[in-house]
Amino acid sequence: MTLSGKVAIVTGAGQGIGRAEARALARAGAHVVVNDVGRAADDPSVRTADRVVAEIRAEGGSAEANHSDITSWDGGRELVEQSLARSGALDILVCNAGIVRDRTLSKMDLKEWDDVIRVHLHGHFVPMRFAATHWRERARATGAPVDATVIATSSEAGLWGTFGQANYSAAKAGIIALTQVAAREFAAYGVTANAICPARVPR
Amino acid sequence: MTEGVGLDMDAAPGEVDEWDPEGIVPWIVFLAGPGARRITGEVFVVHGNTVKRMESWRPLAQIRREVHWDQESLGAAVAELGAGSDTMRIGDFLELRDRLA
Question: Is the ipTM of this complex over 0.90?
Fold first, then answer.
C-alpha cells in the first residue's frame, strides 16, 4: 500500500471530509491519529473521533483517537506528542478542523469573528508548529531530509471572499499564506506543505 | 469538513455530488504519498473529480511615475490599471446598490 508504515494525523476528523480523509489514509496503509473534540449528534455519549477509529479498525486499518482542542497550545502539543509517543513518528499532518459562523459584516460580532479565526488559524498553526519542531529536530539528528508532508484545508472563500463569510474568508486566506510560509520554511528539513480548497461547481 | 458547510447541498438524483468527500480523498492520499514529494507551496481547488492548481497573486498591470503621484495624474493614468473592469464584481455591486435604493 502507498502509505504503509506512515503515521498520519487528521484534525477535525470526526465527520465530513476529515472522516473521509482519515479512512482513506488508513486504507492506503497509514496509521491514523483521528483528532476531533466533537460528540455524535445522534448520541452525545459517543465521541466522533472514537466512532471513526472504530470504523477504520472494522475495515482492517490502524487508528487511534485524540480528543484534544487543537486550537490551544497544550492541545496541539498533546496531539503531536501522542502521535510520537504511541506511534514513534509523524509523517503526514492533515489540518482540516473548521467551523462557520456566517453573518454579514454589518451584523457580525467579535465572538463570531474570533471563534472562526481561532478554530481555523490557531487550529492549523498550533499542530503545524509542534510538528515542525519535531521534524526540525529529526532532520538535525539524522542529518537527512524528513519525508513528511502537511496538507492544509483552505477554501475558495479564501481566494475570492464569500458574501456573509468575512470571518471564514479571512481565516481561509490566512491558511493559504500560512501554508506558503510553511512550504518555504519546511523545505530546509525536506517537508512539503500544500493547501487544498474543497469546492463545488454551480449547477 | 468545516462544520455546517455544504450540509444543504446534496446532489439531485443522477448528478455528481460535488461535495461528496470521497471525490476529494484520492487527491489527499496522493499528496500524502511518494508521488507528491516534489510538490510544495501549492494551492489546489478540488471539486468532484476536478483538481485545479491555482496561481498565486501576481500583478496584472502597473503604473509608475518618476515623481510622486498627484490626484490629477492618477486620475489620468488609472485606466491603465484596468481597476473596475471586473464586470462580475462591479455588476454585483451595482445590483446590490440598486436593491437598496
Answer: yes
